[in-house]
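Quick one from the shared queue. A colleague (R.T.) flagged M14 family metallocarboxypeptidase as missing a structural entry in our internal table.

Convert sequence to structure tokens.
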Amino acid sequence: MTTNPFYPIGTPGQPWSELEKQQWRQSQTRYRFYKNDVLDVLHKLKHRYEIVQYGELRYDEDIYPLMAVKSQNWDDNLPVALISGGVHGYETSGVMGALGFLSECQNEYAGKVNLLVAPCVSPWAYERIARWNYNAVDPNRQFYPEGKAEESLALMAYISSLKARFIVHVDLHETTDSDENEYRPALAARDGIEFVPGTIPDGFYLVSDEQNSRLDFQRAIISAVEEVTHIAPSDDEGYMFGYPVASHGVVEYDNNAYHLCATMTDAPFTTTTEVYPDSAATSPEECIRAQIVTVRRAIEFALSN
């Protein structure tokens, strides 16, 4: 078996023990601060929204309040639009896009839909620009009752407690070069499996759930985002990452098989964004704008359909 020859932690072909996980954790560096980038922004918005703490993470000496933002005049008779960002902490435009949407949004959805935004689901990873949480677990594979990520379980519990009718859920993500040169090799090393090199699509795309396939919804978002940044093409065989491209810029597979965040509600309209910030053809500002445009178009489409 060919294993990843260069990942510096672990023994090729052997899954990590707690010792290797500790080594991985110690190799992570804090580059930014959740309080400054997220909590302080939410504090400035408290006059326009209801800010709710739905949980708390305690990792060594670090304490992270988990925050959600609700429409100030929440109406139980209205459906709910759920926006989640930062499930993977290193996917910056997801967090910034969620906060940007909240900052830009005024009262245009009043009386139509309740807004519920979880802008940074995984704050420990956000600070370290990492995919995994403190325990070397990918939160976006843990959205089910037996999941092993506190971040995912806390958000699921909060969503369940609302007993709300969700109409749309947009989960904001990125695909970066570090997926291929860091996180997939780390995954192979952690699980003691073969690392097979792949490619990163150049551009924005969406992940649709084949069990909840609304390609008209996905296409409407792609059409709007195309005005902001370029859309990733499929390969010569019509695939991305080995999954079929169901429509221009839309990959579709069974999201439940991977316990993805987008499966958390029974909303009829769900999608996961994937922005490619490392492309020479885009910028950080365009990536954030693409996330905001996605959220706006998704809500508009859901309300009109």
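The chain has one domain: 18-304.
The chain has a mean pLDDT of 96.
Added to the table.
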